[in-house]
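Record type: monomer structure entry
Structure origin: computed from sequence
Chain ID: A
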Amino acid sequence: MKPTVLIISTSPSFSPARLAMALAKTGCDTEAVCLPRHPLGKTSAVRRIFPYRRLAPLRSIKNAILSASPDLLIPSDDLAALQLHALHAQENRHGGKEKPICALIEKSLGSPASFPIVYARTTLMEIAQEEGIRVPKTVVITNPRDIDEWAASANFPTILKADGTSGGDGVRIVRTLQEAKRAFQTLEAPPLLARALKQALFDQDVALLWPALLRKRYAVNAQAFVVGREATSAVACWKGRVLASLHFEVLQKQDAGGPSTVLRLVDNAEISAAAEKLVRRLELSGLHGFDFILEEHSGDPYLIEINPRATQVGHFPLGPGHNLPAALYAVISGSGTQAPPRIIENNTFALFPQEWARDPTSHFLWSFSRKMGSGIFRKPSSSFLIRQRKLKNRPEC
């Protein structure tokens, strides 16, 4: 019998649909919890769709789990991962017959001890440092006096990051002490309700809705600014062991704080080792991502972030050891099936339509079009570009 994978998506992005197609190709039955008109509903690779309800998210996910009886859960964005963690806590309190849901979440994501760590940036950096992973100095900022202390021992520019945010929304690069204090007040404060409602109603982005309604204040961290190039990793893992991995250097982004749109596959032993150490230390399972900065002079990688969910490159079929869906299928099916050989020769990947929305004239797109023959890409209509620009800054790094 085919294993069933349930994808949970709270954001109308494209990558979950591509991941569903890749999982179906490996032999999984794929189902999804998502918003109406989501790209997941446009592909025949998804056998069944369950509605995601903005005002009752945990109930939506729980009902889908009970109906689908999946073998694995995959959150495709940060909010989906956070809500799976919340559902685990809720069902764990209830106990009894609800325990199977907790067991499934742990099977899919890893040890519950890791759940609070992946959203606590300073704690994560401390653990990484204990594992011998190179990280920038990071401290928790609780009040303006902490910023004064940070400024006395650190240089500007500095990065301020709010825990529990994604897609660059909770990140500020500050260049002066006064700018840092203003940014701290902004990042710590609950999201404006009007902004959260606008994103939920017009952009189908519900990430800020509950924090705004509950007037949630965020924990803020200061992190030393490392000058260099960005890199990102995606891994499939199981009970603290990496099964398959992909490592990329970021060549282009939608904007300074947004997700990547063009990447180049790289072989970096230190990045690979860092991912393996954290997966083992946190006892992770499923799909996860890690972000790094390659210091501009030495090229040394500095870990800056973990993404506790599938990332937008997770569907790439790049051969044994580098095909994440195939690796997950092999372990949940018990088949031990090897991934098929790699058939994509190019190491540079332009993500579509993300790079198209960023720049319709991008040479990364048109050079590929010339290689494949005319007519592969057509210049997009203005209405298409307007729709795609609304997707900018979504958490798809």
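Annotation 1: The first strand starts at residue 4 and ends at 8.
Annotation 2: The radius of gyration is 21 Å.
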